């Protein structure tokens, strides 16, 4: 069994906590527990907002699924579909912007449908995610939300997507595939510059990233103040990049512990 190199959260210098400019976070199984945001996680979002610490959610979930939460939650923005769609409030209205232009999205739509059909045809038990109707730039195959796929079939889905020229990642619930070079990290850079007029890479040591799964590894490796909620250990055999810290609490409770430490340092 792989060792866990992450340090316990909040074992970080208080001056680092005080210097934090904002929080980037995954949603499923990081903010949410069994598909819904918990009271402690929602309170943490309110408290961070009140303290002037912006929270930006970066998720593999689709644009359509994300829209009500972008309207209701006390967050600066949601970047959905692994970096390709940004949703944020501006002037009292919800704005939706895309990393790819309309021509590219239209061209990719046919290819996405073709790959989705191939996956369902070739991988036994493969089922498109129930939130697929809300997707604009990717496809998602359910492996743990409503349908259970074993690791061999997850690997088979990923192999088909990559053979078709897609980027493919595995979250705690879905296998996502898309055409393009956007990622959670490129989406974070885009939205931080778009909303806050800040260059994320120039100050990445002052941003916290919170996640829970293998598709968070790019972010774990980029941010020195990366945090995994405790349920991340369920993927310990698939992880090659661990976060710097690991919370005691799982899912929304773990996110609330991150917020508490940042607020206490203020």
Fold and architecture overview:
- Helix content is 36%, strand content 21%.
- With 266 residues, it is α/β, with parallel strands linked by helices.
- It is globular.
Helix-strand layout with pairing:
Layout: E1 7-8, H1 14-18, E2 22-25, E3 32-33, E4 36-37, H2 39-50, E5 55-58, H3 63-72, E6 77-80, E7 85-90, E8 93-98, H4 102-122, E9 138-142, H5 151-163, E10 167-170, E11 174-178, H6 184-196, E12 207-211, H7 217-222, E13 225-228, E14 245-246, H8 251-265
Parallel strand pairs: 1-14, 2-5, 2-12, 5-6, 12-13, 13-14
Antiparallel strand pairs: 3-4, 6-7, 7-8, 9-11, 10-11
Helix pairs in contact: 2-8
Task: Name the descriptors.
266 residues; alpha/beta; 9-stranded mixed beta sheet; 36% helix; globular
Main sheet strand line-up: 1-14-13-12-2-5-6-7-8
- The number of helices is 8
Uncertain ranges: none
> Distance between the terminal alpha carbons, to the nearest Å?
38 Å
Strand percentage lies at 15-25%
Characterize the biggest β-sheet: 9 strands, mixed
> Considering DSSP H and I runs of 4 or more, what fraction of the residues is helical?
25-40%
Mean pLDDT across residues: 97
Helix-strand category: alpha/beta
Radius of gyration: 18 Å
- Based on Cα principal axes, name the global outline: globular
How many beta-strand segments?
A: 14
Give the topology string: H per helix, E per strand. Answer: EHEEEHEHEEEHEHEEHEHEEH
């Amino acid at each position: 069994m792989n060792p866990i190199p992450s340090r316990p959260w909040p074992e970080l210098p208080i001056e680092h906590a005080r210097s934090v400019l904002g929080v980037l976070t995954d949603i499923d199984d990081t903010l949410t527990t069994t598909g819904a945001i918990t009271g402690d996680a929602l309170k943490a979002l309110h408290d961070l907002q009140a303290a002037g610490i912006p929270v930006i959610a970066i998720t593999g979930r689709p644009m359509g699924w994300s829209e009500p939460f972008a309207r209701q939650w006390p967050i600066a923005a949601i970047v959905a579909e692994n970096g390709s769609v940004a949703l944020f409030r501006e002037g009292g209205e919800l704005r939706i912007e895309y990393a790819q232009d309309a021509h590219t999205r239209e061209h990719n739509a046919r290819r996405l449908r073709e790959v989705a059909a191939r996956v369902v045809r070739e991988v036994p038990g493969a089922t498109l995610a129930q939130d697929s109707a809300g997707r604009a730039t990717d496809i998602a195959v359910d492996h743990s939300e409503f349908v259970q796929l074993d690791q061999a079939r997850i690997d088979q889905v990923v192999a088909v997507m990559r053979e078709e020229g897609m980027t493919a990642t595995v979250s705690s619930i879905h296998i996502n595939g898309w055409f393009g070079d956007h990622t959670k990290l490129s989406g974070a850079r885009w939205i931080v510059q778009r909303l806050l007029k800040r260059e994320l890479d120039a100050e990445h040591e002052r941003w916290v990233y919170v996640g829970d799964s293998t598709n968070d590894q790019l972010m774990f490796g980029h941010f020195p103040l990366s945090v995994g909620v405790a349920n991340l250990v369920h993927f310990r055999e698939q992880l090659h990049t661990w976060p710097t810290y690991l919370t005691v609490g799982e899912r929304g409770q773990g996110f609330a512990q991150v917020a508490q430490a940042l607020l206490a340092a203020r």
